[in-house]
Each structure stands twice: as structure tokens, then as C-alpha cells.
Write a structure and sequence with these properties.
Distance between the termini: 39 Å
Strand order of the largest sheet: 3-36-35-34
Largest sheet: 4 strands, antiparallel
Strand content: 35-45%
Number of helices: 2
Radius of gyration: 21 Å
Number of strands: 36
Structural class: mainly beta
Shape: globular
Length: about 475
């Protein structure tokens, strides 16, 4: 059967994902079709994590491509049947230009003829970051490899320093300016696994200095989830940290913790995603929490402004996507699709048969009523018991799209059958843990005021420009 939005909901495939057809209710103000600038193969070293970063300091970005099992590197997963030691020991980081030229490599590329299994190292997320960590005026790459935290020279890939992490399941990191800028930045590392005792879910956190000495010993944050926000909120020149349901100062002392009511179980519930932006145009930031219980918005003093029952929110993103360009929040839920909310929490639309994430706002037009669009990345739900073979026909459905102001998916990026992912052996419960997924990054690469969208999978990278 077909739902009213054109999504397959039949039992045969057991999938919840959007078909490529555009529903008839698509608004008249449509985005123009993207123009393919170039594409190139990364099949020899492709992975789920790809980041744009200026590696040589020339002001223009290059790409970092990471192959890693992510949190599956941990001994906690030794008994998992869809993993083996080749998956766990995999590490390869490759620097490549936007024309596809390999600049340097750290590690050894994966060689087997079926996909490696990875989790928590997907879509350019937190296993990898680039920053001038040691205040020498040049960028460094910070990466987790083989149970250690490593600092590489960004221009060459040369290892500058490394330190063994206190556990083998640290998979998330970023940098912050907690101390004196003259002494460099600090590096935040945290685990992403509920099995590490005695800490609560997604703990502990440990913070290092630029020389990889310890800035702060391991500690726990109530409700810590899978991301955080680092920002100088009070203007004192040092960053604060929004993590879990708390705001921490530069010494990692708690400024406030949200009052989530009696009986809230911080050991079980957590903030899967935290975001900060000015939702109502008053010049002040609000904080969005996609929790495993509710979706809620607070001010920067920790006061809850409104709450929406979400079941298990996974992420949110805000942008000028309303019918008249007003701010709209798109919240992705683990089992109940996508929600469009206004800035006061009122539900504008709910597409319960879509699975995936709205990930960014794309500036796509020089003139017209609608200049910004939400970029949507479809995703497969778990399908059946492993192992099984994937279906290349899924690829068309998984190709990224825009979302209209009512949540309707819009085809924008031209598709060719040669873009389809080949049939391959799936050993993981989540097929995207074996690469059955397309990822997307947004950046104004040519400085013309319009965004480019870079789409990638484990085999290829496509660079698309806004329409002329």
C-alpha cells in the first residue's frame, strides 16, 4: 500500500523509507536542480566518516576520509557475531583534495571484498577533528586510533604525539578553548557505550591539554548522549560545554543541570543530540534537546521553555524553512519519523513513514521566496537477521533530498543508475553499519554565497553546485 505522502509501508520489505517520487502537494516554490561539478572514486580507502577541513592552511578545504570500526573497536563487542578482529583493528585515515588527489595516508586501507562493520564513526561525526591544537599557527588532526588519542600534522599526516586512552571505547572527541589560548586548545574525549561501568550511559569524559597531559580526570555528566556544544556563551574568552542536560564552565564545573522532574532516570535517559541557535529572533540562544524521552527547548539559564512528547528523539536542526521563511525545527525520532515544529513547540507536520535525518540548512537561491532548504538524509531501518545481501535498488531511495516546508521530500540531486551501491554482504543488524547509506556535507566552497553539497558513500564522492 501507499501512504498519503508516497512512502512504501507494505510488509514485504519491512522498511520505513521514502520513495524517490515527489508527492503532489509539493509547493510551487521548488528548489532548482543541482548541477554536478565533479565526482571521483574513493573505493580504495572509502569510509563512513568524511570531513572537510583546511589541512595546509591555504584557506581552502581538503577532505579527510576515515575507515574505522568506531565503538565496535572495543572489547565490549567481542561476542558480537557480525564482527571479527579485522573489523576491530581497522584504521585508515586518508587526506585527499576536492579533485580526488591523495595527499597522505595514516594506516592501512581495508582490503576484503565485503564491507567492514562500523558504528559511531559515521557521517563526519566526532571521531575526527581538525584544529590548531598546539597554538603553533598550523592545523593538526586529532583522531582516535587503536585505543589511543593521536595528534597528526594536518599538512603531512606525520604523527606529532599520542597517548593511550584509559579505555578502549572512547570514540567521540572535539576541541575547546578552556585554558589560555597561548598554550593551545583542550581535547574532549568521551565514550559512547552504556556498558562501561560504573559510569552512566555515554560516559565517562576525559579532557586533555594540547601536549596530551590530562586537563581534567575522567568524570560523568548526567544524561550525556552522543554529541555536545562547545561555545563561549558568556563572552569571557573561554568556552563552556553543553553536554547531556548540563552546562559546564571551562573548569568543567556544573553551572546548571536541568530539572527534569522527580523520577527522571539519568542512568537510562540521555540527550541523543544537543543544538543551540536563536529560534525566536531575539538575539539570544535557545538550546534544543533530542532526548530518549522528550524533545525540549530551554534558555541558556537552564529554564525549560517548552516540551514535546517525542518517544525517542534522535536529532534536531533549525532553519528558515517555514512557509514564509520563518524558523522551523525538524526533529528526527528513532521510531516515529520526522516532526516539523514551530519555535513554540506546535506541531506543523508529522511524516511518520519517513526514516532518516534532516541534517543542515542549504542556501540554494539568489532570489525567490524560498532561499534555504532542509537537507534530508534517508536511512534504512533494520531489515532481517544477518547475514544477508543488500539490494542495489535501495540506493535510489537512500539518495539525499531536500524537504519542503510541509515535510515533503524533494528530488534535487540528479541521479544516475551508476551511482547505485552494489549488492554486498551485510553482517550487521543495522545495514548502514556496513555502508548502506549516503552521507552529505554542506559548505560554500567557491565563496559565491551559495552552498555546495558534497554527497559520499564508501565508494565515491559527488560535488554538487546550486543551479545557475
Amino acid at each position: 500500500m501507499m501512504t498519503h505522502r508516497g512512502f512504501y509501508a507494505g510488509p514485504a520489505a519491512g522498511l520505513l523509507l521514502a520513495l524517490s517520487a515527489v508527492a503532489t502537494e509539493t509547493p510551487a516554490d521548488k528548489p532548482g536542480q543541482a548541477v554536478l561539478v565533479r565526482s571521483f572514486s574513493v573505493e580504495a580507502f572509502g569510509g563512513d566518516t568524511v570531513q572537510l577541513a583546511d589541512l595546509d592552511g591555504d584557506g581552502e578545504p581538503e577532505l579527510l576520509v576515515l575507515q574505522s570500526a568506531g565503538q565496535f573497536c572495543s572489547k565490549l563487542y567481542r561476542g558480537q557475531k557480525d564482527l571479527d578482529d579485522v573489523d576491530r583493528e581497522l584504521y585508515c585515515l586518508t587526506a585527499v583534495t576536492l579533485q580526488g588527489k591523495v595527499l597522505w595516508r595514516d594506516g592501512t586501507p581495508y582490503k576484503r571484498d565485503f564491507p567492514f562493520t562500523s558504528h559511531g564513526a559515521q557521517g563526519g561525526e566526532l571521531m575526527l577533528t581538525v584544529s590548531d591544537v598546539n597554538a603553533d599557527g598550523k592545523p593538526e588532526v586529532v583522531v582516535i586510533r587503536h585505543g589511543e588519542l593521536a595528534l597528526l600534522e594536518a599538512a603531512t599526516g606525520k604523527t606529532l604525539s599520542s597517548v593511550k586512552l584509559p579505555a578502549d571505547n572512547f570514540v567521540d572527541l572535539s576541541t575547546a578553548q578552556f585554558g589560555s589560548p597561548a598554550k593551545g586548545r583542550q581535547i574532549i574525549c568521551k565514550v559512547n557505550d552504556r556498558s562501561y561501568k560504573p559510569w552512566e550511559y555515554a560516559n565517562p569524559i576525559i579532557v586533555y591539554n594540547a601536549d596530551l597531559t590530562v586537563y581534567h580526570e575522567p568524570f560523568a555528566v548526567p544524561g550525556a548522549g552522543h554529541n555536545w556544544v562547545v561555545r563561549d556563551f558568556n563572552g569571557d574568552g573561554r568556552d563552556e560545554l553543553l553536554m547531556g542536560y548540563s552546562l559546564l564552565d571551562h573548569d568543567l564545573k556544573t553551572i546548571w543541570k536541568l530539572d527534569l522532574g522527580p523520577g527522571f532516570n539519568y542512568a537510562a535517559e540521555h540527550a541523543d543530540h544537543v543544538g543551540a541557535s536563536d529560534l525566536n529572533g531575539d538575539g539570544k540562544l535557545e538550546v534544543r534537546y533530542s532526548g530518549s524521552k522528550d524533545f525540549l527547548v530551554t534558555d541558556l539559564d537552564g529554564k525549560t521553555l517548552w516540551k514535546s512528547s517525542a518517544g525517542h528523539g534522535q536529532s534536531s536542526v533549525a532553519g528558515p524553512w517555514g512557509p514564509h521563511g520563518e524558523q522551523q525545527i525538524i526533529m528526527a525520532e528513532k521510531n516515529r519519523g520526522l516532526w516539523g515544529l514551530d519555535t513554540g513547540g506546535k506541531v506543523r507536520w508529522h511524516s511518520k513513514d519517513i526514516n532518516g535525518y534532516a541534517i543542515a540548512s542549504v542556501h540554494w537561491a539568489k532570489a525567490g521566496a524560498c532561499q534555504n532548504w532542509a537537507l534530508f538524509r534517508p536511512q534504512l531501518k533494520p531489515i532481517k537477521k544477518t547475514p544477508y545481501e543488500s539490494d542495489p535498488a535501495w540506493s535510489r531511495t537512500l539518495w539525499p533530498k531536500f524537504l519542503a516546508c510541509d515535510g515533503t521530500p524533494l528530488d534535487v540531486f540528479p541521479w544516475k543508475e551508476e551511482y547505485a551501491q552494489p549488492k554486498r554482504l551485510i553482517r550487521a543488524e543495522r545495514s548502514y553499519d556496513c555502508g548502506v547509506k549516503y552521507y552529505a556535507l554542506v559548505r560554500d566552497l567557491d565563496h559565491d554565497g551559495l552552498d555546495e553539497v558534497l554527497i559520499h558513500d564508501r565508494s565515491r564522492i559527488w560535488l554538487f553546485h546550486a543551479p545557475p
